[in-house]
Structure formats: C-alpha cells, structure tokens
Amino acid sequence: MEFKSTLLSPRHTEVGRSYHHQGIVYKKMKKYDQAISSLTTALSIYDESTGPGTKTMIEVLTDLAECYEETGQHEKTISLYARCSSIQKKALGPLHPSVAHSLSHLASTQDIMGQYDKAETLYQHSLSIQEQSLGKNHPEVCTTLIQMCLLYHKMGLLDKANEVNARALVILETTLGKNHPDLASALSNQAKLYEAMGKYDLALPLCARVLDIRERHFGPDHLEVAFTLNHMGVLYFSMGKVDVAANMYKRALDIRERLLGMDHPSVANVLNNIGVLHERNQEYKEALMYHNQALSIQEQHLGREHPDVASTLSNKAIISEKLKDFEAAHQLYERALSIQEKAFGPDHPDVAVALNNLGGVLKRMGRYTEALAILLRAADIADRTLGPNHQITQAIAKNKADFGERSLVFLSRDSARQHSFGHRGHSRSVQHAGKPLSLIHLVYGLLFQPCDGPERVAGYGHAPLSAEGIDRIHNYNAVFSVRGALQEERVCGTVEKEAFLPEQDQAGVVRGWGGTNHPFLQQKGFFFFSSSHRKIHAPPRPLLF
After folding, report:
1. Quick one: pLDDT at residue 444?
2. Could you tell me the pTM of the whole model?
C-alpha cells in the first residue's frame, strides 16, 4: 500500500482498492474497528475518483454496512444500504434484483431496530421487484417470504406470517423436494408459528419432521440437529413436560459442547434454558448456577453490552424476585434495560418488555410513582411499535391497568394539569407519570379490590367515602386531605383530620378502612387503580438459538 501511495498518489483509485482489500481481511478476522477504518478510507478515495465502477462501489458500501451492523451501529447501516439502493436504481433500473437485495438488507436492519412497519414496507417492495424480475417461484422470492414470516411473527400478525410461510413451503417443496434442509428451515418456522398460537400438537410433529430431515442429511451430531433438539425442548417446556424438555436440552448441549467448545455463546443459550427449567421446578439455586454459567460465557465472548446478556440478567432477576430480593432484582432489570436501550434504541419492543419488568419490581418495592411512570412508557412503546392487538402490548396494558389492587391512587383521569395535595399543612404539586403525571398519592392496602364498571376497563375505578368511616380512620391517625383537585373529575374531597403515618404503617391503615366498599369511601370520589403483583415477563423464556 505504501508503494502504491508513493508511486501513484495517496488518493489514487488503486490505493483505495488496497484499503478495500485490507478492510475485507479485517472483516473476516472480525476486527471490525480496523475494518471500518480501512473501508471508510477506501470509500472516501472512491468518492473522489471516477475509476471505480458501480460494482466496486456497491461492494465497499455493503462491506462497510455489514461491519456497522456487526457493531450495532444501525443508523449508519441504514444510510449505507439506502445509498446502495439508490446507486443500483440509477445504474441498473428500479426493477433489478440487486435493488431488491439492498432493500431486503435495509428491511432487516429496520427489523433489528424494532421499526417493524418500515421493515414490512421494504420487504413488500423487495418482494414485488423479485416477483417481476425473477418470477414468483424463484429461491430469492422464497428467502424474502421467510424473512417476512419472521417479521410478522414478531409483530404478532400470525395469520400473515402463516400465509407467507405457506407460500415459501410450496416453493421449496416444488423446487427442492420434500427432504431438503432448506425446506426443514421453513418447517421449523411453521412450528414456531404454531407454538405462538399455543398449538403444540401441530408444532411437535413438524419439529420431528425437521429433526428427521436434518439427521438424515447432516448426521446426528450436527449443529442444525442441536438447534432442532433445543427447539423441541422449548416446546415440551411450554407444554409442561419438563422431564422430556430436560432430555432434549441435554442432547442439544452435548452436541454444542463437543462441536463448539464449552464456552461458546450457543452453549450459553442452552445453559440458560436449563436454568429456566430449574426455575420452573422452584430449584432456584440450580437455576442461578446455570444462568451464571451462561452469563460468564456471554460476557466473555459477546461483551457486557450484548442483548443476550440482557436476557440472562432478566432471568436472574425473576429468580431474585421469587426469593423476595427485590433490590437485587431491581439492579438486574436496570442493567438489562440499559443494555437493550443501547443495542436497539429507546423505542424497541424489547425495551418495552424490560420497562414492564422493571416497573413491576419497583411496584413491589413500594416505589409506585416510578413504577407507574415506567409502565406508561412501556405501554406507549409497545402500542406504537407492535400495535394494540399484540400480546406484549396487551400484557403491558393489563399490568398498567391493574396497577392498584394494592394501591389507592388519587389520580385525574385524563388531565395533564397539576393537582395540589395537602401534606402536613403543606401543599405540593405532582405531575402525572411520564407525559402527563397528574398527582398520584398512593396508599398501600392489602384488602383493596378493583371497582367494576366501564371505567375499570381503562384502568380506573371510583370508590367513594362515610361518616362512620371517619371515626375508624381517626383511630389510625391517617386521614389524607385532598384539596383543589377538579371536582368534575371526582378527585377531590376533604376530611376533617390531616395526619400521616410512615409508609410502612399504611397497610395497617387501609385495613382499618374495611376495603373499598367502606361507607366512608362511598361518600367521596377517589380514583384508584387495581394492581396485583402479577406481571407478565418476557423472560424467563427459553432461547431458540
């Protein structure tokens, strides 16, 4: 390279080619920082010269985009693939298969970032080009259909996923035969769809067929066989057949350890699954042992900021919650959330799940205001990225709506305005959590039950307040005065005595009130959420990798 620079000039096209080749070598060695440096220099030289053709420009752009993708720099990846697509359209025409290829890469990156609607549009555009230029039964069409199937699965659009995967299966069986390993991959996807629908009786036979194809094609000790065994373990686990699942995991682990070594990330995924299995059996010590082994491997080989690390941390956090070590669970969930925000950005569905889990443990710690703010953010992300009908969106919405079975919340229904609440003679304003936090004043009460009626659906109920109750409450020296808060929204009411107990005593206070049906509550209008300590986690979940 130095010789070329001296002989030709440092910015000559041939020097750019040398940097390009150097970048490819670094990329193959997985030295992505050095690869990015070399490829960026090559691209800069190419941009200044007229020598490199379209093919060379596409190659360097693609190589650089792949390096950025490997290092999680998705915005830069998108920019480079978009530039590829633009060059190809001008040079080759808008219906050339190469344009479809770049669009599919763009869609894949949008998928990783959780921008599913954009990914769907790009995949559809790519599919249309391929069908027009290559025909409806071309293998490239099949590849795009499978990618769309996986995307629709993530979006919870299982009918659409079924439709495109059925097309892919027909193409593969027609062009490759019924025993080809590529067909096995599509069958495996179909099994995952049935699993998502809870149709395990349909998923298992497909997995058995996949296992048969792969064992006959690759032999019994191949990584594809291990993948299928792991998948079958996940299915048996979901069906409650823990012993059968354990045998599947053991076979998968044995193959991966022999072929990949004891400390490979794929080994860590099976270790995680075995840990989840022990957690199901309430064998928490054993579960933590397997999760810690998995975490050690992942941090060593993937880095401390990899999304797989976040999944393992969340699995550990769930065990900490079950052991009632809420502080440890809180720290683990916070770290998992931080990793996922860095990896995917602040508005990814996995971030919504992490927020949901973090909000749940904060609620169990009695940190209600923080918990509600976090659940509101989780619900907003899930609703925007997955839509209101996705199971994750609905689970988070239920957790948010169920926020107060053990909590009395004085909360304005729709207002973003501030409400003043008296506290030992002092007025204070609190904003409604998240993006409008109107006050929430929480009183912990074990006997509180949700209100029925139409408002309950939106997460609100109202239960009012009685003269008889005032004396009983006075006995506990715990009456809350609520001032100046929107009469029409029934969030106001004043009691003669104003005194407060420490937070740890409030459970006893509310027990003294006799629950939400007490006459005292039926005279004044207070809003409250119904909240249980149940929350739906994405983890602990077995991993299919």
Report:
1. 27
2. 0.67
